[in-house]
Structure to design on (926 residues):
């Protein structure tokens, strides 16, 4: 990924179901041992807000072990977490393009620029 | 990518009696332009469908990567071109290499003297020929002396195994195709109820019948999706992928979730009905009553296509919203909103296991089914589509016994006195009667058991120690087919046949909507074989007509003959969707005589079921208090105050499988039960604490998960636990210590009046902390020499890996 701009992961956490696919896909792809993660889900909730609403969100957070699947990108593939996400709520791309999407899209978006996101290839 | 093909319809009528009236339109859609195998980065990529083993209901499209030089398995990724899941995958497939290369994998057939059942060090390796010879000789001898009826052929939950298991038994002359779950209470009751009422089965329309999925111009997203009694994101109920519901949410669908627990879907739902377990039909009847009283039903559909509306309306009448609210614990206004939403079109219902695991399961299913019928959801875009096996491909539903047996012989099926079970199209033995017979030998002994891809001591068998284990041990011969040594096989089996995993096999995958090959990407390790192959090879010894073809591939071609193609064609076409039509009942496509209407006696959907009436059941839905509840058993409730509901699933496992995979096990190390913080505080129970869950019939230990998402009067407990790292031999809590954490120790094997249903979702229990010395699961270890002479581990991958060191 020859780049001189930042790349990141856009998460639409309204739909993240906490299925753990991203965590395991990443561990398998990068041979990361049990107990360590390239991406790890953080959970906020569940608690009851009012009679009809619950706070119950999960957000996958890329760690310092995430290299945004550099080898896959070179081969024209998407990062494995993005590809396999069962809720299809993750997207990879240049930060400016992803940020643009945040301005037009619905709510509950999170944009991550992991350590590897600004490393030139 | 999608290719439309006009097929020359040879219409070669099969000799099967199974419904041949579902002649598909002469058009099919395929993934025909895509390669099924190619080279990529020094690897060979093979397109395939994952459908067991390891077990799963789904058939996600996968790419299996193997080493170009060695041919060895490397990994699995999702297949982005596959319409079923568009490249997505769950952790169990992504991590499947841990399974393929797991040390516990069985590599060779083995035998053990029946007097040594339960011993880990009494195994002898044998060849496949010897294994087949022994099974052949012993099963034939039993059949000739006692009749085919005295051998059972048992499989687990639906994957490819049910049809091939039934067919294998039929080839020998045994009608006893079986399943150990009390009341056969998984899917089958709902299918039986739906078939009885509608003359066909229906599924929620998430566009899965179209290769172009959500882009299909005819499809529209359901306005409301009811998720009733299941957690489809994890369980993927009935072969439908739960995350399709998330896809529909993004496309505007609203959610109504009926569940005693706050699942993720419940937490995002527009309406969550936190129902008291076991009261689903009270809710459904009240919704029906509200819909009818407020004139919200689809008059045109009811007038033209339904029978018995007035009687059904009468049955709903006593069910005021107020009364239902008292029974179900659901606030009145929420029942009203649910009824109003149900009446909107299109509404789809993903129903599930909670409706089966109730002794009144048939009437509960009928009560829900009638709701989507009177609101006109049948076969409309975004509603409830009518389904059948595409091209009658027999890999999901079992074969029709009428192919082989006379009506008199069919009556020998255990439990055939249950009218509903015998006549509703189900061809399984009634489980509780079958187990009774195993245990008591009355009215005649069961001498042989074929146990394929099922682990009833750890998973689907209720009261397993006193019933399943004792019953199986009463057999003269027990044959087990699995990929690792399970508690069931260690305790009971005399012959064990090693099963391979899906990257290593050929096969056909089809559940309702389309057909895809499972393409073999690599050779099985050791001498493992796939279940199709095993049953075909053995079945041909008994009846070649039932297992036709000179090769396994020819047998697959036989299975898809009505598509007018061979297995090899199917491989090249990647996936095959028959053209789908909505509103088939208007066009004569739902009945064998080509007339409009449904395939029932009246030609209409029977809201008042003439068949149920004929079988001595109540023809309209009703509610009956569960036999074990705080209301029906107030005395007992003083000692056992909680309603016990069991069987919630986790992403990390499929029933009792995947427990030995280090990565997945690390995420969910031990069985867990959910308890409300208020209840936990009163009992002095903290998060993570090991507790006894005790019912009037038994107890087991699980770890507490204290959460406000469950009602303080309800406890929910994991199922399917055993401990692959524990001693294989029974040290008092079953082989591999399965009974230590097996919730079925608390649940009886007791069906409802129809022969269907059990109490797995609504029983009674108390909960209390374990004493410190009662927590042996923290440091489980196998005390014996793993590779002693005769140890089954000598025939596992672990032994081979050890030999290579």
């Amino acid at each position: 990924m020859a780049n001189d701009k930042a790349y990141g992961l856009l998460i639409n956490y309204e739909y993240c179901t906490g299925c753990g696919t991203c965590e395991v896909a990443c561990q398998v792809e990068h041979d990361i041992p049990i107990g360590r993660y390239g991406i790890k889900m953080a959970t906020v909730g569940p608690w009851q807000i009012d009679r009809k609403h619950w706070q119950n969100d999960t957000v996958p957070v890329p760690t310092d072990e995430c290299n945004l699947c550099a080898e896959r990108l070179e081969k024209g593939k998407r990062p494995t977490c993005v590809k396999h996400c069962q809720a299809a709520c993750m997207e990879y791309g240049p930060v400016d393009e992803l940020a643009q999407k945040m301005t037009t899209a619905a709510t509950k978006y999170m944009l991550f620029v992991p350590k590897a996101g600004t490393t030139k290839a | 990518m999608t290719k439309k093909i006009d097929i020359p319809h040879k219409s070669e009528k099969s000799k099967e009696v199974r419904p041949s009236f579902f002649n598909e339109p002469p058009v099919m859609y395929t993934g025909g332009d895509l390669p099924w195998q190619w080279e990529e980065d020094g690897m060979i990529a093979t397109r395939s469908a994952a459908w067991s083993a390891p077990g799963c209901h789904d058939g996600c499209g996968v790419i299996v990567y193997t080493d170009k030089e060695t041919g060895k398995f490397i990994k699995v990724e999702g297949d982005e071109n596959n319409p079923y899941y568009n490249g997505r995958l769950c952790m169990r497939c992504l991590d499947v290499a841990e399974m393929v290369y797991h040390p516990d994998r069985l590599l060779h057939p083995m035998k053990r003297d029946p007097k040594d059942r339960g011993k880990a060090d009494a195994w002898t390796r044998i060849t496949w020929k010897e294994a087949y010879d022994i099974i052949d000789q012993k099963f034939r001898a039993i059949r000739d002396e006692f009749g085919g009826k005295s051998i059972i052929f048992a499989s687990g939950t639906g994957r490819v195994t049910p049809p091939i298991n039934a067919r294998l038994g039929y080839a020998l002359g045994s009608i006893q195709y079986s399943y150990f779950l009390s009341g056969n209470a998984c899917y089958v009751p709902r299918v039986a109820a739906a078939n009885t009422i509608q003359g066909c089965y229906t599924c929620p329309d998430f566009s899965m019948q179209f290769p172009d999925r959500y882009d299909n111009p005819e499809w529209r997203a359901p306005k409301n999706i009811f998720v009733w009694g299941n957690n489809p994101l994890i369980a993927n109920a009935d072969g439908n992928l739960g995350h399709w519901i998330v896809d529909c949410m993004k496309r505007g669908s609203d959610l109504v979730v009926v569940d005693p627990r706050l699942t993720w879907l419940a937490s995002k739902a527009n309406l969550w009905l936190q129902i008291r377990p076991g009261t689903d039909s009270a809710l459904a009847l009240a919704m029906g009553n509200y819909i009818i009283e407020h004139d919200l039903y689809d008059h045109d559909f009811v007038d033209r296509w339904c029978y018995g509306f007035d009687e059904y309306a009468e049955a709903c009448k006593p069910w005021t919203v107020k009364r239902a609210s008292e029974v179900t614990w659901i606030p009145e206004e929420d029942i009203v909103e649910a009824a109003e939403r149900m009446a909107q079109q299109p509404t789809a219902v993903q129903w599930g296991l909670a409706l089966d695991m109730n002794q009144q399961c048939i009437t509960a299913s009928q009560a829900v089914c009638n709701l989507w019928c009177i609101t006109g959801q049948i076969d409309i875009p975004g509603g409830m589509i009518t389904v059948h096996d595409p091209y009658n491909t027999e890999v999901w539903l079992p074969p029709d016994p009428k192919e082989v047996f006379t009506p008199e012989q069919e009556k020998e099926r255990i439990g055939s006195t249950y009218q509903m079970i015998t006549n509703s199209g189900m061809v399984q033995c009634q489980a509780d009667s079958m187990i009774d017979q195993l245990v008591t030998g009355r009215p005649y002994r069961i001498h042989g058991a074929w146990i394929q891809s099922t682990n009833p001591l750890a998973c689907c068998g209720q009261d397993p120690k006193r019933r399943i284990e004792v019953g199986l041990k009463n057999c003269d011969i027990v044959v087990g087919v699995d990929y690792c040594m399970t508690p069931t096989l260690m305790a009971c089996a005399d012959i064990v046949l090693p099963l391979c995993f899906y990257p290593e096999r050929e096969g056909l995958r089809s559940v309702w909507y389309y057909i895809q090959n499972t393409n073999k990407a690599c050779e099985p390790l050791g001498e493992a074989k796939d279940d199709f192959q095993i049953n075909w090879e053995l079945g041909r010894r008994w009846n070649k007509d039932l297992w036709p073809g000179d090769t396994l591939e020819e047998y697959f071609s036989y299975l898809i003959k009505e598509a007018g193609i061979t297995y090899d064609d199917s491989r090249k076409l990647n996936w095959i969707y028959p053209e789908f039509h909505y509103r088939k009942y208007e066009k004569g496509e739902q009945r064998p005589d080509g007339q409009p209407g449904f395939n029932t006696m009246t030609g209409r959907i029977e809201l008042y079921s003439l068949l149920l009436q004929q079988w001595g059941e109540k023809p309209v839905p009703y509610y009956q208090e569960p036999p074990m509840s705080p209301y029906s058993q107030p005395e007992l409730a003083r000692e056992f105050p909680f309603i016990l509901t069991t069987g919630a699933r986790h992403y990390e496992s499929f029933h009792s499988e995947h427990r030995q995979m280090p990565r997945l096990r690390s995420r969910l190390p031990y069985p867990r039960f959910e308890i409300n913080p208020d209840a936990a505080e009163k009992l002095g129970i903290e998060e993570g604490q090991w507790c006894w869950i005790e019912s009037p019939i038994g107890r087991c230990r699980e770890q507490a998960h204290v959460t406000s998402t469950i009602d303080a009067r309800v406890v929910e407990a994991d199922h399917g636990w055993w401990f692959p790292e524990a001693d294989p031999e029974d040290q008092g809590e079953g082989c591999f210590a399965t009974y230590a954490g097996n919730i079925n120790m608390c649940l009886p094997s007791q069906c409802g009046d129809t022969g269907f249903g059990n109490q797995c979702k609504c029983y009674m229990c108390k909960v209390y902390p374990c004493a410190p010395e009662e927590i042996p699961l923290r440091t489980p270890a196998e005390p014996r020499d793993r590779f002693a002479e005769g140890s089954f581990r000598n025939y596992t991958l672990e032994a081979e890996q050890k030999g290579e060191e």
